[in-house]
Amino acid sequence: GAGVSQSPSNKVTEKGKDVELRCDPISGHTALYWYRQSLGQGLEFLIYFQGNSAPDKSGLPSDRFSAERTGGSVSTLTIQRTQQEDSAVYLCASSFGVIDSEQYFGPGTRLTVT
Amino acid sequence: GNSVTQMEGPVTLSEEAFLTINCTYTATGYPSLFWYVQYPGEGLQLLLKATKADDKGSNKGFEATYRKETTSFHLEKGSVQVSDSAVYFCALVNGGSQGNLIFGKGTKLSVKP
């Protein structure tokens, strides 16, 4: 079956612009996670959705970052006024449950801020 | 807070060599532990997991045993192949209700023929 998909696969943007990253989870997976992979910081957790609800947004690096999920399916991560330090690979994962459920990762969106 | 420490790479081995990648963790309680693998140009994939102390996870010839006495989850394989060349990440499930993963920094393995 279809796995987790993300779009775009690559995004180059100028500093100060807004970007929107999309994640399509596996159908039926209620939990959705966003992570960021960068050379300096490794893999960092950003935010988690159970259904459409994100109970804890404290993992987001700054208030320029926001995320939403609609219909218990697609999620978008928006970065406003991008900075060079936002350059990273943004990974989305979904799972059927929460604790101890395998997380299936998408291929990621490589964001480059120039 | 919870954290994972794994050996720095890169690790370069010849085909059929024995592999160990060390991983230790700091956590409240006994969280599930995972090894994820990222092959060149591909996304993260679960390699194996263990959900309680003394459990052994295994897959594709790789093994790791959940050792609570030493808070470790070392990855081993008896005979590596060129196709095992990848970046390996040790991870644990964070406490609380979110179930997010906390990852180590990753260890790049290169296997030469």
How would you sum up this structure in a few lines?
The complex is a heterodimer of chains A (114) and B (113). With 114 residues, chain A is mainly β.
Could you explain the architecture of this structure?
The complex is a heterodimer of chains A (114) and B (113). With 114 residues, chain A is mainly beta. Chain A has no helices and ten strands. Chain A has strands at 5-7, 10-13, 19-24, 31-38, 42-50, 65-69, 75-79, 88-95, 104-105, 109-113. In chain A, the strands form two sheets. In chain A, strands 2, 4, 5, 8, 9 and 10 form a six-stranded mixed sheet that branches. A four-stranded antiparallel sheet of chain A has the order 1-3-7-6, with no helix packed on it. Chain A is globular and about 35 Å long. Chain B is an all-beta fold and 113 residues long. Chain B is built from no helices and twelve strands. Chain B has strands at 3-6, 11-14, 19-21, 23-26, 33-38, 44-50, 56-59, 62-65, 75-77, 86-93, 101-103, 107-112. Chain B is globular and about 45 Å long. The relative contact order of chain B is 0.34. The mean pLDDT of chain B is 94.
SSE arrangement:
The complex is a heterodimer of chains A (114) and B (113).
Chain A: E1 5-7, E2 10-13, E3 19-24, E4 31-38, E5 42-50, E6 65-69, E7 75-79, E8 88-95, E9 104-105, E10 109-113
Parallel strand pairs in A: 2-10
Antiparallel strand pairs in A: 1-3, 3-7, 4-5, 4-8, 6-7, 8-9, 8-10
Chain B: E1 3-6, E2 11-14, E3 19-21, E4 23-26, E5 33-38, E6 44-50, E7 56-59, E8 62-65, E9 75-77, E10 86-93, E11 101-103, E12 107-112
Parallel strand pairs in B: 2-12
Antiparallel strand pairs in B: 1-4, 3-9, 5-6, 5-10, 7-8, 8-9, 10-11, 10-12
